[in-house]
Design a protein that fits this description.
By secondary structure, the chain is mainly beta. It has 5 helices and 27 strands. Strand 18 and strand 19 form a beta hairpin.
Length: 480
């Protein structure tokens, strides 16, 4: 049951939360229930004590005191909301800002924003204008989904509410589809609220080290970030537990169209925090923007030569890793026998004759949903070189195959094991058809990260499930 405290008295300090909503398109976040496993007290609920809109079209007009708060990208309008919070006696477990959507300029706003801190905590409802609006800092994280009239929208502000003290936040967005929110002047029932849950913090999670000092780890998943879901943040929290470990991105790192804005607003706040240790493969969604240009702009040389996307690297003393481009119909990315990519692959494998070889790209050859036959020449080259393991994404969900030849016949001695881990965050799951002959495990509606433990003679796989998933899978194999 929510507790609605009275205004702070005496020497209680006030927590000031200023929300700047730049442009339309607020969105729902992950449910309140997903979070630390801890004993929480009943949440505190605080109503706004001040709110105001700053309008770029009227830069010197103060708009505080109105019944609605406007957020828009064209013309740009910013809404600030302030709360006075006190009386918290235990650590903050969760903090949510709740705003009630009054209307939008063209139906539900489809846009999403990103939270950011605001330096000032002393702005005035009566005097705030566009000309003197508080400065917005670097982004903390994204918001997802549509803002529909009559709905409450929740925003996760846990990272900024650390207890009794001043906090200022902003939500930045550039979408021109404006949204109107109920201000505190519209009545207590629809006024903006800050809901804070406190309680004992759970014990920190420790990561189990590799089983041997010679083992190396690799974390992998594909089909990751979009501005209308939260699965990518859930899987990013798994990767947070493994600092410094290389991340294999199995393609479709952003959806829906691979734009620069999607990399900036959707990917950067989640998996973007691992960019310096990510070795990505390019997916089909990246190519929905001409030539996958924003993909190479974002990842740079870590994604291989621009327009090609194939490259290789080593892990430890025993493993050679090859990254390929399975968008075989795109200019410069043919997978045919004798193509530039296929010739490069055979030469690279010959030049790096390590005991163990792993390859990954986006679209799988084998899938009980739908495979892509045009990548078979790449499988032929890998099989001929004695490679061990193939990772793919694309078909949202998880599927693991027994070692097999490029023609799909089982081969426990020299076959390649394929694992499809399109589990990085995308929610659009497709149903499996009839299982292919060597399909050993299949699961849909799965978010997680595939952890590979690479030893000098073999490998172990563990699918680490996200907070919204119970399915997992594990096993091991030996190098040829």
């Amino acid at each position: 049951m929510l507790r609605d405290p009275v205004a702070p008295r005496g020497r209680r300090r006030a927590v000031v939360v200023a929300l700047a909503i730049v442009a339309g398109g607020l969105a729902a976040i992950a449910p309140w229930a997903t979070g630390p496993a801890a004993e929480a007290t009943a949440p505190f609920s605080f109503r706004a004590v001040a709110d105001a809109t700053a309008d770029a079209a009227r830069p010197h007009v103060a708009l505080g005191g109105q019944r609605s708060l406007t957020a828009d990208g064209s013309p740009r309008r910013v809404t600030y909301v302030r709360f006075s919070v006190a009386g918290l006696r235990q650590p903050v477990l969760r903090a949510r800002l709740r705003v009630h959507v009054q209307d939008s300029t063209a139906g539900p706003s489809p846009s999403a924003g990103a939270v950011a801190p605001v330096a000032s905590t002393t702005w005035s409802e009566a005097r705030t204008t566009w000309a003197n609006r508080p400065v917005v800092g670097a982004r903390l994280g994204p918001f997802r989904g549509a803002a529909r009239a009559g709905r409450w929208i929740e925003f996760d502000v846990t990272a900024a509410v650390r207890g009794n003290g001043p906090v200022s936040l902003a939500i930045v967005q550039s979408d021109p589809d404006g949204v109107f929110y109920d201000a505190r002047e519209a009545g207590a029932a629809v006024a903006p609220r800050l809901v804070v849950a406190t309680g004992a913090r759970p014990a920190p999670t420790t990561t189990r080290p590799p089983t041997s000092s010679t083992d190396r780890l690799l974390l992998a998943a594909g089909d990751v970030a979009g501005c209308t879901w939260d699965g990518d943040e859930l899987t990013a929290r798994i990767i947070d537990r493994y600092p410094g470990v290389t991340v294999a991105g199995l393609g479709d790192m952003v959806q829906v169209r691979g734009t620069a804005a999607e990399f900036r607003d959707c990917y950067a706040p989640t998996w973007g925090r691992f960019r310096d240790r990510t070795r990505p493969a390019v997916g089909n969604h990246e190519y929905l923007t001409a030539g996958a240009g924003p993909y190479w702009d974002y990842f740079g040389s870590a994604a291989g030569a621009r327009g090609k996307g194939w490259y290789s690297y080593d892990i430890g003393s025993s493993w050679h890793v090859v990254v390929l481009n399975a968008n075989c119909w795109e200019a410069g990315a043919s997978c045919k026998k004798g193509s530039e990519q296929e010739r490069w692959l055979r030469a690279d494998l010959a030049a790096h004759a390590r005991p163990c070889t792993l390859a990954y790209w986006h679209q799988p050859l084998f899938s009980s949903i739908e495979g892509l036959d045009s990548v078979r020449p790449l499988w032929d080259a890998l099989y001929d070189a004695g490679a061990d393991l193939v990772l793919n994404g694309h078909k949202h969900g998880y599927e693991r195959f027994a070692p097999q030849r490029p023609d799909g016949t089982r081969d426990p001695a020299r076959g390649l094991r394929e694992i499809v881990a399109a589990t990085g965050g995308a929610p659009d799951f497709l149903p499996f058809g009839a299982p292919l002959p060597n399909s050993e495990v299949r699961a849909t509606r799965v978010h997680g990260v595939l952890k590979l433990t690479l030893s000098t003679t073999g490998y172990r796989w563990d699918l680490l499930p996200a907070a919204d998933t119970s399915f997992t899978d594990s096993g091991s194999g030996a190098c040829h």
